[in-house]
Design a protein that fits this description.
The complex is a heterodimer of chains A (162) and B (671). Chain A is mainly alpha-helical. In chain A, 69% of the residues lie in helices and 0% in strands. Chain B has 4 domains: 14-220, no CATH class; 236-371, Rhodanese-like domain (Oxidized Rhodanese, domain 1); 403-515, Oxidized Rhodanese, domain 1; 542-661, Oxidized Rhodanese, domain 1, CATH 3.40.250. The chains are: A mainly alpha (162), B alpha/beta (671).
Chain lengths: 162, 671
């Protein structure tokens, strides 16, 4: 799809979210709460006693962002099936070893999961949502994402070598 | 006006969950359509191969921004209906840099990974597992990193305010940048990957034009108010409307009459220097530096009118507008300043050029008698002669400023600017309470100190308790009274001991709140713990039995015993000894309360002022208030200090329980 039109659609969804929920889009909150839920199942005492997850209560999954995350998956699945784009694979450069790609995906995931807790949001909840509201901190966050990304890009380029 | 789930405090409801799911579906659909189910495509931006991330993100941001600016400016939705993330520079800079590193390594971000997973991408699954683990690690090391999480907390800030621009001009500038990025991105794609399919196409021209025209249209709209913590701004247009309609100032004659009629609900603030203030000020005014106004006025947010004055009008007018942006709707400035007050109120009738009727002459004479000592010439404007000294005026009665109106609290609450302590019993709290409030029994601030029971806890214990309730020194604390007003005032006196002056009692309690259909919930509040500093020097009002004994021996203060009359007289006793401290005067706390409905209310301030004027010789006379254990006495201390403006009130916490149990202390019986 034309990226500008896809972006416009995304912007309209965000606008609806502001006007209906009173909050923008978010994705990392859902993942973090799933993490908290998992830890709750394994170590219930330690989780409710911990300072950060503890403030989410005994049922961290009872939160609108968890449902939104489920929606993102569902909407994405619908669109991918519609476009016949579902394919089970580990995306990487043709010459890149799969272990390198898997390791970078995991390491990057850990960093992203950590960073989005620190900044209380990710590209959706902080950069896109806060950017649309013209919030100072969110715009600074967005610039820093690109600064960090471009600064690191050279070091991890091998995973895309064909 | 649109009411959002956030504004209704219903984000935790099943309805909101369903709506969030549906919105999420739209979100996921749009991401997948954009091609973000592919990590390779996402990573493209960092190698200048495929700039789709930039195009999609900026398009979405600009479209939503134009929509939101429009809705906010037109007043179709209020800023307090939208959850706005605070700006915390430290956390957002560190988090953003880290996030960027993680983003380019994994080539996923949380939202796109969900779509990637739906598209069958294994690397998305690995990424999501990693991100969950990252959150768990964050939780584990939270005690270490929480300092960073709040580093550089600047509250809710919007870029256009920070840059001193209007919303319209910033939005247009931002849109120009976005459009430039679109063209730049296409150009880069053409050079690096020989794609750039949209470069120079009619579509991109039309799309750019449409965004610029729409964003340009925002210039026609006024900037909305964006709330900042601690205070929220009214709509800028309302402010300008006030200015245009002259509703931002008070005429000198009107102010003079209002003060002479008792100044009920009126706070007059002189923002000149202390030296000028000492030389002359309008009777009843208080002195504050212009920079201190937000702090000084916080307790008076519920006053009917706050009038600022200086020699001229510029500074008070600017301060008034600034305060209005912070959410004060009740601030005015004095027309023509103090000079106008001299000219129009205090100038003797005989010196005036215009012919005056007898009624006008009488009015001028009344003003002169009240504001300037009779017979003395009008002091010249203090700017030219600061030495023209008049005796200092008594401070203004503080009326109901320390009782918080429900409407005021509702406003503060919507902006998260207030911490609420509910003193009702736990079952009532559990059934329904004001969102965000905590339930605190007054017993939890009392205990055994040095062998005496029911003493207010020392400051370090209270500071810890305040921290556990998430209270910060700059917070306004609203106390919700239950059936006993003195439960609320005891919590208040605990805050006083902490040096936390910014508290008030919710007028009419939950009963009035509920009757006005304001939000109630049974949900637990989310209150991150804070570290409240324990300042042991704030409590200068508590006295112990030794000090009271000195006072009794020297007869150096009035002892006010607020227990029921039969206990004071000694007819009844459930203590070690019956009677009262020698010389103590009795005024039971019930006499200050007018009961209406379930929640007690104070009698009107004028009535209380009259009653205490009979008992206490002057506003600065030394008074020691006590009861049996200090609990009930806290209510009288509140009445005297906060409502009536008595300045020399002490609180004997140990009270009759301690006094009667120390056999060496003297006791008097009978009436």
């Amino acid at each position: 799809m034309n990226p500008y039109l896809a972006g416009t659609l995304l912007g309209l969804v965000l606008l609806v979210s502001f006007l209906v929920l009173g909050a923008g889009l978010g994705a990392s909150g859902g993942i973090a709460r799933a993490g908290a839920y998992l830890q709750c199942c394994l170590l219930p005492g330690a989780t409710s006693a911990s300072e950060y997850f503890g403030s989410w209560g005994d049922q961290p999954l009872r939160h609108y962002l968890v449902f939104m995350f489920a929606g993102v998956f569902t909407g994405g699945l619908f669109s991918a099936v519609l476009a016949n784009r579902v394919a089970f694979k580990l995306e990487r450069g043709a010459k890149a070893p799969w272990k390198l790609r898997a390791l970078l995906a995991l390491g990057g995931g850990v960093i992203v999961g950590f960073a989005s807790r620190l900044a209380a949001g990710c590209t959706s909840g902080q950069a896109l949502t806060g950017g649309a509201l013209l919030l100072s901190g969110s715009l600074v966050f967005m610039l820093c994402i690109f600064a960090g990304g471009y600064g690191m890009a050279w070091f991890v380029r091998r995973q895309w070598h064909d | 006006m649109i009411k959002t789930m956030f504004g209704l405090d219903a984000l935790g409801s099943g309805q909101a969950f369903l709506l969030a799911f549906l919105i999420g579906c739209g979100f996921g659909f749009a991401l997948e359509r954009a091609g973000f189910g592919s990590s390779r495509r996402l990573a493209g931006i960092f190698y200048f191969r495929d700039m789709a991330v930039l195009k999609v993100m900026f398009s979405a941001m600009i479209v939503a921004m134009i929509g939101m600016c429009c809705f906010l400016s037109m007043g179709w939705v209020a800023a307090d209906q939208i959850y706005m993330m605070p700006t915390i520079y430290g956390a957002q800079i560190a988090g953003g840099l880290l996030f960027g590193i993680g983003f380019v390594m994994s080539a996923w971000c949380p939202g796109t990974a969900a779509v990637g997973l739906a598209s069958g991408k294994l690397d998305a699954l690995i990424f999501l597992a990693g991100a969950g683990l990252g959150a768990i690690i964050f939780n584990a090391v939270y005690p270490v990193v929480k300092g960073l999480e709040t580093l550089g907390d600047a509250g809710i800030r919007v870029a256009w305010q920070d840059l001193g621009m209007s919303q319209g001009s910033f939005a247009f500038l931002f849109t120009c940048i976005a459009v430039a990025c679109f063209w730049g991105a296409e150009l880069i794609e053409r050079k690096v990957a020989r794609t750039g399919a949209y470069l120079g196409t009619p579509f991109l021209r039309a799309f750019s034009l449409a965004l610029l025209v729409l964003a340009g249209g925002l210039w026609l709209l006024p900037s909305p108010s964006i709330s900042a913590p601690g205070a929220a701004a009214p709509f800028e247009q309302a402010l300008l409307g006030d200015v245009a309609a002259g509703e931002d100032h008070v005429e000198p004659e009107e102010l003079a009459d209002a003060i002479m009629q008792g100044g009920r609900g009126l706070v007059v603030v002189d923002i000149r220097t202390p030296g000028e203030f000492a030389a002359f000020h309008i009777r009843g005014a208080m002195n504050a530096d212009i920079t201190e106004l937000p702090a000084v006025l916080a307790p008076y947010a519920g006053a009917d009118r706050i009038v600022l004055y200086s020699n001229g009008m510029t500074h008070p007018a600017q301060a008034r507008d600034s305060l209005a942006r912070m959410g004060y709707r009740n601030v005015y400035f004095l027309t023509d300043g103090l000079q106008g007050f001299f000219e129009r109120c205090l100038k003797p009738a005989s010196l005036r050029g215009e012919p005056l009727g007898p009624a006008e002459v009488e009015r001028i004479n009344a003003w002169r008698a009240f504001f300037a000592a009779p017979g003395t010439p009008v002091p010249p404007p203090p700017a030219t002669s600061p030495a023209a000294a008049l005796p200092p005026a008594p401070s203004a009665p503080r009326t109901e400023a320390m009782l918080l109106e429900t409407s005021r609290l509702a406003g503060d609450l919507a902006r998260g600017a207030v911490k609420i302590i509910d003193t009702r019993p736990q079952p009532e709290y559990n059934t329904a309470h004001i969102p965000g409030s905590v339930c605190l029994s007054p017993e939890s601030v009392r205990g055994v100190v040095a062998g005496v029971s029911s003493m207010l806890m020392p400051v370090d214990v209270l500071a810890r308790r305040a921290g556990l309730m998430g209270i910060r020194p700059e917070d306004i604390v609203a106390i919700v009274p239950g059936e006993r007003m003195h439960d609320a005032t005891l919590i208040g006196i605990a805050l006083d001991r902490l040096g936390h002056a910014r508290w008030g009692i919710l007028e009419g309690g939950i009963e009035k709140w509920a009757a006005e259909n304001r939000p109630l919930t049974a949900a637990l509040p989310v209150l991150p713990e804070t570290r409240y500093p324990a300042d042991g020097t704030a409590d200068t009002f508590t006295v112990d039995y030794r000090r009271v004994l000195e006072i009794v021996n020297a007869k150096s203060a009035l002892i006010l015993d607020v227990r029921p009359r039969e206990y004071w007289s000694g007819e009844k006793s459930d203590e070690a000894r019956a009677g009262h401290i020698p010389g103590a005067v009795n005024r039971p706390i019930d006499e200050d309360i007018a009961v209406a409905g379930e929640t007690p209310r104070f009698k009107p301030v004028e009535e209380l002022a009259k009653a205490y004027a009979w008992i206490i010789p002057s506003k600065d006379a030394p008074v020691v208030v006590h009861c049996r254990t200090g609990h009930q006495a806290s209510q009288t201390v509140f009445v005297l200090r906060r409502l009536l403006g008595y300045t020399n009130v002490r609180w004997y916490d140990g009270g009759w329980s301690e006094w009667s149990a120390r056999p060496e202390l003297p006791v008097e019986k009978g009436t």
